[in-house]
Amino acid sequence: MNVLLNGDRVELPDGATVEDAVAATGAHDSRRGLAAALDGEVVPRSRWADTALPDDAHVEVLQAVQGG
Amino acid sequence: MRIGEREFFSRLIVGTGGFTSLEAMRDAVEASGAEMATLALRRVDPGARGSIVATLDELGCFLLPNTAGCFTARDAIATAQLAREAFETNWVKLEVIGDDRTLLPEPAELIEAAQTLVADGFTVLPYTSDDPVLARRLEDAGCAAVMPLGSPIGSGMGINNPYNLRLIVEQASVPVILDAGVGTASDAALAMELGCDAVLLASAVSRAEDPTAMAHAMRLAIESGRLAREAGRIPRRLYAEASTPPEGMPELQ
User: Fold this and answer.
1) pTM of the predicted model, to two decimals?
2) Active site residue B93
3) Given a cut of 70, is residue A30 above it in pLDDT?
4) How distant, in Å, are the alpha carbons of B73, B213, B217 from that of A42?
């Protein structure tokens, strides 16, 4: 399946979940400091593994950075 | 100092933007004595080294995520919700920018975002202009503090309108935190002398030639400014008033 992940078109296996998309970004820290949005809506971490991505999903995976 | 449900001993809040490395940030935050530090959310960079969250956790800093870069209430609300997930906190430094050159806040969107986030259970600390009416609206919206700028973000111009800041302090029943514009220690001291409860600064420390030394300077300035405010300064006078008594002067001719 094809999804828009952090602005890039990427191919993920059919049935991929938000958790798979997070892993595909290469994010290191699986503990605090990561958040994901699917089609503009926040997906709580507890739901990453069971939230399947629709085809053409728009996923944003964010991490903590310096700022402010 | 109490903000929302939390008590803070330090009246300095450090923004983590602009440091050249996590090590430089850690040393400066430690020297500042700050108990709360801001951070932001951006797209994952797999090449990023180290973890800012782990570093701030080690320092015992309370995390204050920001919504920097948001130009609409909608974006700021979504960013705050993402930050709540990422950092397990309902605190947010709310920024809604209205102009990309001055980074001044967009008042209507700011109030709308504040209202929505307060209703959603957030502890909202809004970055605002030095307009006393806007500050009051934000307080009415249920914000836990108001954070007026001294001058534009990163400008280092200090406090451009001390009069407005005094009005904001006078009317506020939530903490007033000077946010943005501090260039050097005397700016932070002045903010405290004008009655601000705390100062939030980033660039003044992170972009100083010696960030750790400047962080120490800010810590002392804020303590001094607070003490001076509480001590009660003398009124300004046009002419001199001798401090040595004129009585008892000898005749020396």
Assistant:
1) 0.91
2) yes
3) no
4) 16, 40, 40
Domain boundaries, chain A: 2-63
Residues of chain B with pLDDT > 90: what percent?
96
Is residue A46 less than 8 Å (CB to CB) from chain B? no
Which residue in the list B11, B26, B84, B93 is annotated as catalytic? B93
Residues A4 and A59 sit within 8 Å (Cβ to Cβ): yes
* Contact criterion met (CB < 8 Å) for A35 and B68: no
**Do A6 and B44 make contact, defined as CB atoms within 8 angstroms?**
yes
Split at pLDDT 50, 70, 90, the class of B63 is very high
Output the six-digit token pair for B34: 């700050």
Shortest Cα–Cα distance, A63 to chain B (Å): 5
Residues B97-113 have pLDDT tens digits of 999 999 999 999 999 99
Contact in structure between B138 and B146 (CB atoms under 8 Å)? yes
CATH architecture of residue range(s) A2-63: Roll (3.10)
Nearest chain A CA: its distance from B42 CA (Å): 5
